[in-house]
Fold Large ribosomal subunit protein bL28.
Amino acid sequence: MAKCAICDKGAHFGIAVSHSHRRTNRMWKANIRSVRVKVNGAVRKMYVCTSCLKSGKVERA
């Protein structure tokens, strides 16, 4: 599973509980995109979550 290169956000694990209280394992995935980013003047591809993209922590190429 991919992780954000900026904030290290990835998948979270837990238990889903139905109405009848049956419990099953589940996974919450972060909204991660592969984007072209400027890093020290050079253009690289890296995995970045959308919250880092929206907040301006990353400059897109």
Summary: The radius of gyration is 16 Å. Residues 12-55 form one domain.
